[in-house]
Design a protein that fits this description.
Elements: E1 7-10, H1 18-27, E2 32-36, H2 49-61, E3 65-70, H3 81-100, E4 105-108, H4 120-138, E5 142-146, H5 152-159, E6 167-171, H6 173-180, H7 184-190, E7 195-200, E8 202-205, H8 211-215, H9 225-234, E9 238-241, H10 250-259, E10 266-268, H11 276-288
Parallel strand pairs: 1-2, 1-10, 2-3, 3-4, 4-5, 5-6, 6-7, 7-10
Antiparallel strand pairs: 8-9
Helix pairs in contact: 3-4, 7-10
């Protein structure tokens, strides 16, 4: 097996801001970057047309490209109908920003897809994703749902009910291993028609956990990235670990991606650890072993 996919890193994983993070991404050997675009300097409202051109020019000057933006608005995802009025509109603006910066992919968490299609939450998620999917499709873009909160089978069942593939998948193998216990390679084969972006991350599952305790849900606490980071570092239920040290079988994961003809980015995400740059550098080298 010889991988030809480009290697990306999430700029925010370095914890040093966008510009410095871009430099570090270049320094560790990445070819592309994923950037959070929901608040602060990367909030679409804070980036004028000229600022967007300048940022794209700067990224180009480093020899990098954007693999995707992160448009994760937190909370309950799109499970709450009242919140979706502003969340759907903001998500559309993030797609517009992505296209201005040279990528057509925005990754996000939508909230756990219920197993029961007849539930009210399922209907609320469906309505939001239908609108988002049609908007993305009309612009030649994708909203990519990150795997992990629900099984690959439940996610595929949900995506199959939408009228377009404008809502697709950002495949994260570690989330599956740590939370649902799904096999990543089988998940790749199941979701093969929808995968437009991937994360490369590793983890171990220490005991069974209710996904709602991790990702939040209506009736539970909302999703909180700081809480998730604490959970993956404390190791009560699962632990994120450097590539090759966890439960993700990368031989079979990468082979499955090749099998389905995936040619997009392998983007490194490191949510914990006190030496992110060192861990990310090692992760780049780990993936390069497959080239």
């Amino acid at each position: 097996m010889t991988l030809t996919n480009k290697i990306g890193v999430i700029v925010d994983s370095f914890g040093v801001g966008v510009r410095e993070g871009l430099k570090k991404a270049k320094d560790v050997g990445a070819e592309g970057v994923q950037i959070y675009a929901v608040k602060g300097e990367m909030d679409p409202e804070n980036l004028s047309p000229s600022a967007r051109k300048e940022l794209k020019s700067y990224i180009d000057s480093l020899g990098l490209e954007i693999s995707a933006l992160v448009g994760d608005l937190g909370g309950h995802g799109f499970q709450v109908k009242e919140d979706n009025l502003w969340k759907v509109e903001k998500s559309k603006r993030i797609v517009d920003l992505a296209l201005d910066l040279g990528t057509n992919i925005v990754t996000t968490h939508i909230g756990i897809v219920p197993h029961d299609p007849a539930s009210e939450v399922y209907a609320t998620l469906h309505a939001a994703c239908e609108e988002l999917g049609q908007y993305a499709k009309s612009a030649g873009a994708y909203f990519a749902i990150e795997t992990g909160p629900e099984t690959a089978a439940d996610l595929k069942g949900f995506l199959d009910t939408l009228s377009t593939n404008g809502v697709s998948v950002n495949f994260d193998p570690a989330n599956m291993v740590m939370v649902t216990g799904d096999d990543p390679a089988q998940g790749v084969r199941l979701l093969k028609d929808y995968i437009v972006h991937t994360h490369v991350k590793d983890g171990v599952r220490l005991k069974e956990v209710d996904p709602r305790d991790v990702y939040g849900a209506v009736g539970y606490a909302p999703m909180d990235h700081e809480k998730i980071a604490e959970m993956v570092s404390s190791g009560t239920f699962f632990r994120e670990v450097p590539l090759g040290e966890g439960g993700v079988d990368f031989d079979s994961y990468f082979a499955a991606l090749q099998e389905i003809g995936y040619t997009g980015y392998l983007t490194i995400e490191r949510e914990v650890g006190d030496q992110p740059e060192q861990d990310i550098r090692k992760a780049v080298e780990f993936i390069k072993q497959y080239r």
